[in-house]
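User: I would dearly like some help making sense of a protein record. This is the protein in question:
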Amino acid sequence: MSDHGAQAERTGLAWRRTALAATACTLLLLHTAARQGWGTAVIPVVVAGVMVVVLVAIGSIRERALRGADTPKPLNPALAVTASALVVATAVALIAVR
């Protein structure tokens, strides 16, 4: 007998922790963009901000799915690809703007 509640809580905390770290990075990018006079330096900030929103949404969806009484379904591959693509897009935007 497994405890889905603990699994859901651990997963939810991991997604929140990841989103919090991404938020901190986004704020640092925002600070850098403000110091550079905005311009194209805003592009990584916008992409990173979207990434934070997506991470929070996916985390909420995943935690809700794990809290259900029945066996949870695996994470939708489209959500995983979206989160990964946004991480890569943020890195590319940051490198391109520098």
User: Anything to note?
Assistant: The two ends are 53 Å apart (CA to CA). The first helix runs from residue 4 to 35. The chain has a mean pLDDT of 85.
